[in-house]
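Predict the holo structure. Ligand: S-adenosylmethionine.
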Amino acid sequence: MDYYTNSLRELQVGASLIFQHGSGIDSKIMEKGIFILLVFLGVLAVSKLLFALSTGLCSPLTGGALFTTTHSSKIQKILDSVLMKPGQIVYDLGCGDGRFLVSAYRRYGVRAIGYEINPLAYLLAKMRVWLTHSKVDIYYKDFWKVNLGDADIVFCYLFPDVMDRLREKLTQELKLGTQIISCNFAVPGWQPDKILKADHSIHIDPIYIYTFGI
Ligand SMILES: C[S@@+](CC[C@H](N)C(=O)[O-])C[C@H]1O[C@@H](n2cnc3c(N)ncnc32)[C@H](O)[C@@H]1O
């Protein structure tokens, strides 16, 4: 917040100096420009604050798996490589802003279900579903409390501190043949069918694909 407060103060001082000494620039245009800048900085500050608050609120439950998103190039690569059928049940464990599920639904007509515990991410996911008219179910719920026995495909982008616990959960609940897609981090001790990399110069983290029980 100090950064934004200081920036706003500097802007105010700068603006008053310019107005006092007469800069030759039309003062109305200057005023408008400064107003727009202030609004922009305000929106930025509020969104950063909301992000910090919502992340802090749920961090005891999420561990290291904070709200970040999977890049569209990775989603593209996954959907090109993991073929899905209409009606198949696809879970995203910690669905963030819902981008993977909405893309999977739009491409394949799967039954897409997401669980999210970060309030901001949950709201963004609901908004995305609403704006894209997608038939995707987003729940504000801890995914550890959900049974995944009916899953055909499980997608996740979680962090190493929860991957052991995730393997235990998947091992107990999944039916044979369920596909697991794990972005960036492997499921410890499991042998992937394949490891994908997006066609992108930066977003080249591994994407691990598994078939449960095979
Ligand atoms: C790295 S982000 C990935 C978001 C999304 N899956 C994607 O790939 O764009 C991980 C998300 O998992 C959520 N999350 C972590 N633990 C969770 C839990 N126990 N229940 C529900 N959501 C959880 C976090 O809030 C965060 O939004």
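The chain has a mean pLDDT of 90. DSSP finds six helices and seven strands in the chain.
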